[in-house]
Amino acid sequence: MEYVQHIVNGVLAGFLLALVALGFSMVWGILNIINLAHAAFIMMGAFLSYYMWQKIGLDPFLGLPITMVALFVVGFLLQKYVINLVIRASLLVTLLLTFGIEGLAINLALRLFTANTRAVRPSYANASLALGSLRLPYTLLIGAGVTILLTLLLYLFLDHTWTGRSIRALALDRTAASLIGIDIGRTYALTFGIGAALAGAAGTLIATYNGFSPGSFDPYNVLAFSIVVLGGLGSIPGALVGGLVFGLVSEFASVYALPQREVIIFAILILVLVVRPTGLLGKRGYNI
Amino acid sequence: MNLLIFLLALVLAIVVGRPRWPRVLRLGALAALVVLMVAAPYISKSPGVLFDALTAMTVAYGWNFIGGYAGYPAFGNVAFLGLGAFVAAGFMSKQPHHPHLPWYVGITLGVIITTLFSALVGIVVLRLRGHYFAIATLGVGIAMPEIINWTAIFKSFFGGGLPLNFPLVRGFDLLGLHLSADRFFYYLALIAAFFSVGLTAWLSRTKFGYSLLAIRENEEAAEVMGINTTIAKVEAYMLSAALAALGGAIVGYRLTNMTTESSAIFNPINNLQMIIIVLIGGLATVWGPWVGAVILFGIQELIQTLAGSILEWQGIVFSAIIIVVVLFLPSGVMQLVRARARITWQLFLHNLLEYRV
Amino acid sequence: MSGEPILQVRAATKRYGGVVAVQNISFDVREGEILGLIGPNGAGKTTLVNLITGVAKPTSGTIVFRGKQLNGLPPHVIGRMGIARTFQVVRPFLNLTVLENTAVGAMFGAGGRKRSTAEAFARAAEALEFVGLSRWRDDPADSLPIGYRKRLELARALAMEPELLLLDEVMAGLRGAEVDQAIAIVRRINERGITVLMIEHVMKVIMRLSQRVVVLDYGRKIAEGPPEQIVNDPAVISAYLGKKYGKTGDTDGQGTAETDNQPLASGQGEQGR
């Protein structure tokens, strides 16, 4: 039965990872930018939740809308006034710019908040739902619910609203999109903002799940990348599937005392890239 | 004093690198540069910073081949820097079960073995393009310290997570001349740096150099024109690994005791540093990495002189530099040096807006 | 100029999943000739050239050049064997100078092995002279307008010292006088002993330059012969103009072969190129 518990843990963690990957996938699929500042947005979400909880006792999950809106604004402004400047430049330039932004954010955070580890521990933090001999931590359960909800909302947004559809159109053909009146710069900013908001939400989840410090978010860039590659770029269900796979892999890797978690992730990444670069569910354009 | 050296090194390098000035002037500047760098450890009170700049420069010259000339931005060459250091240490160490070979053998072996390893990595990774290549190499950089620490393999050679030590250097005697340890390491780094510059100057004029440029500009066209792109790319990657290993081995040697946690070795900052150095100086240029390293370390030295300690601000300054360079001078300083028109602030404005939405 | 075949394509077929781009095509290219390759858009002309140059691998069939089989060889090997090509959408090395662009061809093409870099540059300068681009040799390639970029593409291919030159719509985008100049250049190239296979849409060019023409439609060869013969070939006319015109066989060789290409569409001719 322990085995089943590990699967449960892996799946629940997988939802968290899927949320991490969701925003990253969107930005990559639509703007064709690998946003190395994604980890910084996750960090910001975590810290915002933490301070709201600490200062005014706001439950992190209840505070999610605030966190997400705040991160959306940050992302929107950043894209509109900074990243849009280099959108048509080489890959190296955009990678370095987002990396520079990440470095700035994380180092500023280190200065302002110190490198101490902290976590958000609402009252139910250590409690779990008991199903027979299985333990499902409440924070993870709520987190999984949040992920599913946000994924659904994203899907509805992209498929049923004009804005959402214009975002998808942009991914498929820039020129055509601008010809039918879509403001490219603003749409890019919107997309990036949404990506940041999703990252912020992931940050909140992580804050309740683990202890964190400004430096602990770095690995999420490569992780997000690997999940998106595995699940398939341009696919929302792909991000979910990828997240779940990585959640399970992570769980079993730590259980069987395999310290080489990074190597395993890397190996999976390389394997997918070489064997099936479109990933499990990926297609062209940003399809749903 | 270091600042002055950096400044002179910068100016002289620019003179050497400026294509349209008289040959005599440029050769003279080159000679002056050599003299300056050879005399530097006797002028400066803390050659350690100069050492750091020179080794960083060497690693950057390596990156210049794969990221600059070939146009494949590798984000994980820190893996080769670290591997070079560890292999060299493994051969040179006086700890039990180690062969305790002399430094020139150890460092050479470090370079050779790392280069061979990079060929294996390159064959897999160079089939990818663009973002995929960048992140795959990033993964290599992340995975390498884990591979080295893997207790099942190479445990006795690499120390298995425990510190691996180079032999301590107290001084160096050659032909009656005695060098302090600091100066010995400085000259080691200087030789590596000069070697890198020379190698780049030579290769950039060969068919190989042009094949890389062709690959960068248009890989399909390069193929039908007769260039074996796979081999050329792997060779560029191996070159980048070789110089990274050289720099890494020398850094490790001076560090003496290292583990995979050592911040001078497997630090992600080093990863970015080599890229940003080449970017500041100018991708695919002979003097770009030199100029870039001198500027980067010069700025840090400047801040240190003005503000005292740099440690807390280092990350922030570094990131700010990256952002500024990427936005305003993506073609590097050498773009300014080689520009035909006069340099005004409009050039920077143009750079800023050239690639916007 | 013996007239012996130097390139033999036999039953070449290329399938992309369910789509057959090129089907069972056989023809020869004879030494010293200018062979035209025409057909409506999507007929498979560029795919055929891709098969010859190794950019794509034939699903079946063989392609033999001077007795050596080209199937499965990588493009760079084929390039060194003496086959050069230009691309329909030109692919200059934008950040290199015009001279450097051409020199790369000289360094790695058929003659490249034994050449030093300096010799390659000298050879490149000659090629630039030949196409008339010498004045801009030190300018970056991305400063050239499209007409000159086409010439650069040509110079680069020439610098490779090919025996067989494959031109993919070299005239596309050129106007009046430019077309005449381009025709003159191609003729001069041929006079030097280089065999040319030209994909073209501009009929005037085909009529004036080629000694023989191969016509493709929907991936198949539908006609082969001297230009005067094929413009009157009912199958060819039908392919371009629709069955209605195929019966009368009435064209005057002016303008492009693409006018009124869609017999079923309502009044949507393509603009002549």
| Main sheet overview of chain B | 2 strands, antiparallel
Number of strands of chain B: 4
Give the integer mean of the pLDDT values of chain B.
86
How big a fraction of the residues of chain A is strand?
under 5%
Order of strands across the main sheet of chain B? 1-4
How many distinct helices of chain B?
A: 16
- What's the helix-strand series of chain A? HHHHEEHHHHHHH
Order of helices and strands of chain B: HHHHHHHEEEHHHHEHHHHH
Q: Which class of chain A in CATH terms?
A: Mainly Alpha
| Beta-strand percentage range of chain B | under 5%
| Helix content class of chain B | over 70%
Account of the protein in words:
The complex is a heterotrimer of chains A (288), B (357) and C (273). Chain A is mainly α. Chain A has one domain (2-275): ABC transporter involved in vitamin B12 uptake, BtuC, CATH 1.10.3470. Chain A is built from 11 helices and 2 strands. By secondary structure, chain B is mainly alpha-helical. In chain B, 72% of the residues lie in helices and 3% in strands. Chain B contains 16 helices and 4 strands. In chain B, strand 2 and strand 3 (177-180) form a beta hairpin. Chain C has 10 helices and 10 strands. Chain C has helices at residues 45-53, 75-81, 98-108, 117-131, 146-159, 176-191, 203-209, 227-231, 234-241, 243-246; strands at 5-16, 19-30, 34-38, 60-65, 68-69, 83-85, 164-168, 195-199, 212-217, 220-225. In chain C, the strands form 2 sheets. In chain C, strands 6-7-8-3-9-10 form a 6-stranded mixed sheet, sandwiched between helices. Chain C is globular and about 55 Å long. Chains in contact: A-B, B-C. At the A-B interface, helix 4, helix 8, helix 9 and helix 11 of A face helix 6, helix 12, helix 14 and helix 16 of B.
Supply the key terms.
heterotrimer; A: 288 residues; mainly alpha; ABC transporter involved in vitamin B12 uptake, BtuC; two-stranded antiparallel ribbon; globular; disordered C terminus; B: 357 residues; 4 strands; 72% helix
Quick description:
The complex is a heterotrimer of chains A (288), B (357) and C (273). By secondary structure, chain B is mainly alpha-helical.
Task: Give the topology.
The complex is a heterotrimer of chains A (288), B (357) and C (273).
Chain A: H1 2-31, H2 38-56, H3 64-81, H4 91-113, E1 128-131, E2 134-137, H5 138-160, H6 162-172, H7 174-179, H8 184-209, H9 220-231, H10 236-255, H11 261-275
Antiparallel strand pairs in A: 1-2
Helix pairs in contact in A: 1-5, 1-8, 1-9, 1-10, 2-3, 2-4, 2-8, 3-8, 5-6, 5-8, 6-8, 9-10, 9-11
Chain B: H1 2-17, H2 23-43, H3 47-69, H4 78-92, H5 103-125, H6 130-149, H7 155-158, E1 164-165, E2 171-174, E3 177-180, H8 181-203, H9 207-217, H10 219-224, H11 229-255, E4 257-258, H12 268-281, H13 288-307, H14 311-328, H15 333-338, H16 345-354
Antiparallel strand pairs in B: 1-4, 2-3
Helix pairs in contact in B: 1-2, 1-13, 2-8, 3-8, 3-9, 3-11, 3-12, 3-13, 4-5, 4-6, 4-11, 5-11, 8-11, 9-11, 12-13
Chain C: E1 5-16, E2 19-30, E3 34-38, H1 45-53, E4 60-65, E5 68-69, H2 75-81, E6 83-85, H3 98-108, H4 117-131, H5 146-159, E7 164-168, H6 176-191, E8 195-199, H7 203-209, E9 212-217, E10 220-225, H8 227-231, H9 234-241, H10 243-246
Parallel strand pairs in C: 3-8, 3-9, 6-7, 7-8
Antiparallel strand pairs in C: 1-2, 1-4, 4-5, 9-10
